[in-house]
Amino acid sequence: MTCIVHDLVSFKVAFLRVDTQTILTIQSTVITKNHRIGITHTENRIWQLRIKDVRESDRGWYMCQINTDPMKSQVGYLDVVVPPDILDYPTSQDMIVREGYNVSLNCAAVGSPEPTITWRRERGKPLLSVGSRDIFHAEGPTLIIPRVNRHHMGAYLCIASNGIPPTVSKRIMVIVNFPPTIWVRHQSFFVAIGQKITLECITESHPNSVNYWLRGKGDIVQGGSYEQLMLENVFKVVMKLVIRPVKPTDFGIYKCIAKNSLGESEETITVHHKSKPVDLLAYHQPNHISATFANSSSNYRNPDWNLPHFSHSNTRSLFISSSLLILWSIFVTS
To answer: pTM for this structure?
Structure first.
């Protein structure tokens, strides 16, 4: 703080703290016991009150005074700016909530000027979705998330700023617990005996689930692979079961089941038996059959007699049946 005095002559300059009426210095002498206070002057004309390691408590009105009669003085205000600081209490801590509940996050900060609180999510995710519109940031000491679901799980940032660097933030982790859910890629398969197939289910849960396979009326299937992933703080498990049906009981219903402390879920996959395709022997007959008989000059012709196609296994029976029909025709016409 600077005080410029002209023609001081034998008068003295003093600095005072107005709000406490405390004398700090008189001329070149420091009166206060505050070791952070000092005084300098240049040719008894430019007087400067110096305060080291300025604190927020130093904020206030100061007076430069000359002991003339009447007294001459000048006052000035010292404003101390303070960068923002987030308070541990009542700022929210990491929390675990059940899906469907409302969540309230609080952030308390101090500083001078008073800090502004902004909320964001890590990785640029939206804070909330209102209809088809995503909201990516919000201001205020409290953030309310109605009916929280698994998509709200993650880290939330409370950011405090007041124009005085540095800006500070606190990371609050929100964990959402929910019972397992299961999806299947294919709900039915048609396979032949000895053909290998892979049954697959995908589960999501938090906390982590216990996963297994059942067959038929509830027999536990041993084996299978369980690939666990952690995506967006959600436990995702890809359940795979490789089977090769060799007997009729290997076909039927298979169930993938996931359980955790909040509930369980299941999906059904049906494995059907597919018969091997039969090789067909294409057999072609003319649309009509004519027969010439030794004892007749006329031909017997039946316009309605059309022969179907037969498989290879019935070819021999076809030839025998055809011969018998010809003999029967001879008997009728004779």
So the answer is: 0.69
pLDDT above 60 (res 324): no
Tokens 């003339």 -> residue: 68
Give CA–CA dist 183/175, Å, rounded: 22
What are the residues whose beta carbons fall under 8 Å from the beta carbon of 33, sequence distance 6 or more? none
Q: pLDDT for 95-114, tens place per residue?
A: 999 999 999 999 999 999 99
* Residue 282 reports pLDDT greater than 90: no
Distance CA 322, CA 326 (A): 6
In the block, tokens 């004398």 appear at 23
pLDDT digit string (tens) for 161-171? 999 999 999 99
pLDDT tens for residues 7-61? 998 999 999 999 999 999 999 999 999 999 999 999 889 999 999 999 999 999 9
Residues in the chain: 334
> 3-state SS of the chain?
CEEECCCCCCCCEEEEECCCCEEEEECCEECCCCCCEEEEEECCCEEEEEECCCCHHHCEEEEEEECCCCCEEEEEEECCCEEEEECCCCCCCCEEEECCCCEEEECCEEEECCCEEEEEEHHHCCCEEECCEEECCEECCEEEECCCCHHHCEEEEEEEECCCCCCEEEEEEEEEEEEEEEEECCCEEEECCCCCEEEEEEEEEECCCEEEEEECCCEEECCCEEEEEEECCEEEEEEEEEECCCCHHHCEEEEEEEEECCEEEEEEEEEEECCCCCCCCCCCCCCCCEEECCCCCCEEECCCCCCCCCCHHHHHHHHHHHHHHHHHHHHHHC
